[in-house]
Amino acid sequence: MMRTITIAMAALAATSAGVAHAQVTPPPISANPVQDDQSGGLVVDVEGGMSAPLPILIPAMPTSAVTSTPAGPTDELGRKLAQIVDDDLRNTGLFKTVGPNAARGIAYSEVTQPNYAGWSGGQALVQGYVRANGNGTLTIGCYLYDLAAQTELVRQGFVVSPGDWRRAAHKCADSIYTRLTGEGPYFDSQVVYVAEQGPKGKRRKQLAIMDQDGANHRFLTNGQNIVLTPRMSPKQNAIVYMSYENRRPSIWIYDMSARSNRRLVDNVSQNFAPRFSPDGRSVLFSMSVAGNTDIYRIAASGGAPQRLTNAPGIDTGGSYSPDGSKIVFESDRGGTQQLYVMNADGSNQRRISFGGGRYATPVWSPRGDLIAFTRQGGGAFRIGVMNSSGGGEKLLSNAWGDEGPSWSPNGRVLMFFRAAQGSGRPDLWSVDLTGVNARKIPTPLDGSDPSWGPIRP
Predict the structure, then answer these.
(1) Which residues make beta-bridge pairs with 285?
(2) For residues 180 and 34, what is the distance between their CA atoms, to the nearest angstrom?
(3) Which of 54, 56, 97, 99 is nearest to 81 (CA)?
(4) Which pTM does this prediction carry?
(5) Nearest to 172 by CA among 213, 217, 127, 214
(6) Which residues contact 4 (CB under 8 A, 6 or more apart)?
(7) For 85-121, how does the pLDDT look when each residue is reduced to its tens digit (9 = 90+)?
(8) Residue 103 DSSP code
(9) Nearest one of 315, 417, 407, 331 to 369, comparing CA atoms
(10) In what order do the strands lie in the sheet with 204-211?
(11) pLDDT above 60 (res 59)
(12) pLDDT tens-digit profile of 377-388?
């Protein structure tokens, strides 16, 4: 059974150990961009990519007293916490970090009283602390300072169980990223994907889930049946996917709490390419009937499917706009595989892609402004984006076999899978909208078909 994880906000208070400042209540954790005035503080231009990364210093987080916990001694946790914040920020390509292995150590009393004059080589400073509480929980503080202005920009605190200390580090990094960029958070999120192993033509494919940085990996299915295209529900309580159980493709739902599966669509006809609606109450999928493949919608609880398209050819890959009013999908009704948009009831179907080659696997951005896709042309598969009305096309990758994009919760980063020519062994990769910060995501086995879930509460 999936654990219910609670990260409580902590009031960062003065203590007898010498962290001296008035008790405050941190602002709530939010998936929305920070709205406060940044005109007087540091601001990172996310459109500029790696052209001018902001230098930021992240020393190890000290502890009020070295205490043994199930997650390790609190002094070791302080270094690991700082390293995760370092990794998260550096991997965006927007920051030039000096992490806990290079930055000088600080005393516990210095966390809220930074020695501004004692730092060089950075424009911003991240400090924090870890403290073991009497009830078995940990309090983790997180502060961001502007070194030139000598001002505090972020103050956050989290109370977590020892097993959830990594989530507090991601929340800390999200707070800093959001404050400096004005963009929504995405570090404290999970990815479901297909873990692959075995020889070409006889691959074992299992559902797997992990944190967005590849940590806390675990398998959800045993690999007895091939699975494809897993998609996480908006509430993160279920995964819809295609399974070849009984050697016929059909749509299944995995319940994250019960760790159980149920068939959503009867496998009388072949059905595939499922995806949840934004409210999680229904599922889009494709079904082949009498030689024609169309897009259907079905309640997530089951029932009779509703047909949404009825054109000759193959219609598949449906993805809702964030407000649920429209659906983008791929179709070869015009002779080549292109992208189309229609209203949620199936009306007003119109083509939006007109470039050379073929377009597939469209996914609507959670911001609503862009549609990501796979474009095949010139013997290669690449990841690209275009405006939701078509136009403004931009390719973000330039490898031989890139497919299946999935958006980060803030709509600034895409995860996809890449296979080297002739290898048949895909890996997970991510790239931001500048297209210059591609990086491989570590997984225990080969990986394909990622689906990036929303930010966790």
Answers:
(1) 296
(2) 9
(3) 99
(4) 0.89
(5) 127
(6) none
(7) 999 999 999 999 999 999 999 999 999 999 999 999 9
(8) S
(9) 407
(10) 218-219, 204-211, 189-197, 446-455
(11) yes
(12) 988 999 999 999
